[in-house]
Write a structure and sequence with these properties.
Layout lengths: L4 E4 L2 E6 L4 E5 L10 H7 L4 E5 L13 H15 L4 E6 L1 H12 L4 E7 L19 H9 L10 H11 L2 H16 L13 E6 L7 H10 L3 E6 L6 H4 L1 H15 L7
Parallel strand pairs: 3-4, 3-5, 5-6, 6-7, 7-8
Antiparallel strand pairs: 1-2, 2-4
Helix pairs in contact: 1-9, 2-3, 4-5
Length: 258
């Protein structure tokens, strides 16, 4: 299904459905296609919002996790969303964590999947030479447990991005910013209910990262999905949506009487 991308001022975003806001933040190589199944399912239950993060539009000085968090704050202020359920994959999870630490009053719950912020294995020790299609194909396949999820269309999309010199420089800047910006000492400040959904075969933010997030975030629960890599909402959408919907419904249940 094709979705309309809205534009208000400098903000481009998708908004589908009605009800409580469910805001989705994509990762470093993210696109709307990453959230296709999630959007289609949850737009019948929530107001699903996907801001297009300006990964390549910020000046180089502000091309960082902090720069993306500031952009997100301006976007959410502009749209006046309240009681937000904030979901982030990979770098998007890192941005979500920084946002909730700075603006906890805006956020109802947090959902992290394959999030950076503690540890991540990005592109490796060396960055590919521009034009190295085979390298990009293999790296894209490593995102998933099933390499066939990395379709030619997806690989072409990543290849096109890294083959533009300025975009490649900004990807490196964002990746380095994510590694520098370790949130381990701050996560205990998060009071919102937090859902962690992790691929059991994630090689970029391995399962121990999910366990460490659960240990450090007080009100958190962790679910693993088998035969699944770094993007569970793409690779195992039915299981992902089931876990997420149960978590969100539970937020609206009255507290059990002892």
């Amino acid at each position: 299904m094709q979705y309309e991308i809205k534009q208000v001022d400098k903000f481009r975003y998708l908004e589908e459905g009605e009800g409580e806001p469910l805001v989705l933040l994509h990762g470093l190589f993210g696109a709307l296609s990453n959230f296709r199944d999630l959007i289609e399912y949850f737009r019948h239950h929530y107001k699903v919002i996907v801001p297009m993060l300006p990964l390549f539009d910020l000046d180089l000085l502000h091309t960082s996790v902090e720069g993306l968090e500031k952009f997100l704050h301006k976007f959410l202020e502009n749209r006046e969303y309240k009681n937000i359920n904030l979901l982030g994959n990979s770098l998007g999870g890192h941005v979500a964590l920084m946002y909730v630490l700075k603006h906890p009053e805006k956020i109802r719950s947090i959902i992290l999947t394959g999030s950076s912020g503690l540890f991540e294995s990005a592109m490796g020790d060396t960055y590919p030479k521009r034009g190295d299609y085979e390298y990009i194909r293999k790296k894209t396949e490593l995102t998933f447990y099933d390499p066939h999820i990395a379709t030619k269309e997806l690989v072409d999309e990543v290849y096109e991005t890294v083959n533009i010199r300025l975009k490649a420089i900004k990807i490196i800047a964002l990746a380095k910013s994510a590694i520098r910006n370790n949130l381990g000492e701050e996560l205990n400040q998060i009071k919102q209910p937090t859902l962690l959904i992790w691929g059991n075969n994630d090689s970029i933010t391995p399962p121990f990262v999910g366990r460490e997030f659960q240990r450090l975030i007080p009100n958190s629960e962790l679910h693993f999905i088998d035969k699944c890599g770094h993007a569970p909402m793409m690779e195992r959408p039915d299981e992902f949506n089931k876990i997420l919907h149960k978590f969100l419904r539970k937020l609206n249940e009255p507290a059990a009487v002892a």
